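Notebook p. 47: complex prediction with D-xylulose.
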Amino acid sequence: MKTRHFAGIPAIPFEGPGTDNPLAFRHYNSAEVIDGKTMKAHMRFGIAYWHSFRGTGADPFGPGTITRPWEKGKNELAVAKTRMDAAFEFFQKIDAPYWCWHDRDIAPEGKTLKQSHKNLDAIVKHAKAHQKETGIKLLWGTANLFSNPRYMCGGATNPDSHVFAYAAAQVKKAMEATVELGGENYVFWGGREGYETLLNTDMKREQDHLARFLHMAVDYAKEIGFTGQFLIEPKPKEPTKHQYDFDVASGVAFLRTYKLDKHFKFNIETNHATLAGHTFNHEIEVAAAHKMLGSIDANSGDMLLGWDTDQFNTDVKELTLAMVSILRAGGLGSGGFNFDAKLRRPSTDPKDLFYAHIGGMDAYALAFKLARQLLADGKFTDHVKNRYSSFDTGFGKEVEKKKIGFKDLEAIAFKLGEPKLKSGHQEYLENLLNTYLHG
Ligand code: XUL
Ligand code: CO
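Predicted complex, structure tokens below:
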């Protein structure tokens, strides 16, 4: 492994829970084999290029605080290449098998669309060489249809067909780049696909356009041989006041309405779930119920702030509950855990990038192990199964088998009289959960 950009920081070793080395894993042992698969293969961790290599710590009140030594020079393309060298050094040192990008994170936007395409081609070539050398793979690619002012009113939902065409050209190219780099998924997050006010918006027409756009992507995938999974990433708001892919449930309704459900699954992001007023594992359960659980954008929000803070998640309880739902659903398939998370503005030391990912990876690895144990013991599963057992036999079973209706049930209710209250035992279950987390 070449070490140049993070010279003072070694490849992060696994040292186990007893270590006091802050630059070591305590729970994520990438080589550990569980059920015939390494932890690396189970976890499928990905690094988000935009936060970890384009994030500067800038916020609406002040400029960036995080300056990296490779971010200098007039030739934007040359800087982009050096930045990518640093990124691959980091991916290797942190022992993550995947990375994820937006087109504009990895390559500078040119003065014309043609120039932007050319820049992307050059960078994709550079990335391909890095991937070959390191064995690091692309979890997913996506197009940034939200930063450039042309997309101020959306890409696929823009009222101007000219912008729609531009967005289509950009996604076409980003899909080609994803194929070129062997990407296993392609993501659509509609940051500005929504509206600010209905006074100027034809909502139905915009949603029709969005669906049309996604169908075009599906058609083009066939043309270029992209066999990866398409993913929708719901988020209720920010930057747009109301976004069309509000949450998983509204996403399912949208995809079904427009006959896109066979082609898409969900990329669920923790902080987007909480912004929608849901828990992370609620969103996972909704997607799993529809067999549409695709991938995870691993981060967390802040209970006291109402926006997308994109923090690294070290909440083992939240992650264990999420992992239980993911494992029960049969895993993520071609998806993975992508750290769509950024350093806090005052975290300016390159070591912070390592601490942040070590914490996130360790928390997920520990949650994975705890969830496996919890499921293997079967206590929660048995409890839930038992709670619904009156639907396993008798008239309950007939309800599920669609054999009886209101008249039969009225007769049964007359006969049985008032139902007895059956406790949900929530506090008992919360205590039981704590025994897994804290012994
Ligand atoms: C924004 C967000 C995006 C998507 C990719 O909240 O999550 O970074 O993950 O466009
Ligand atoms: Co995301």
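Notes: The chain has two domains: 33-377, 380-438. The longest strand covers residues 137-142.
Next step: compare against the earlier run before touching the bench.
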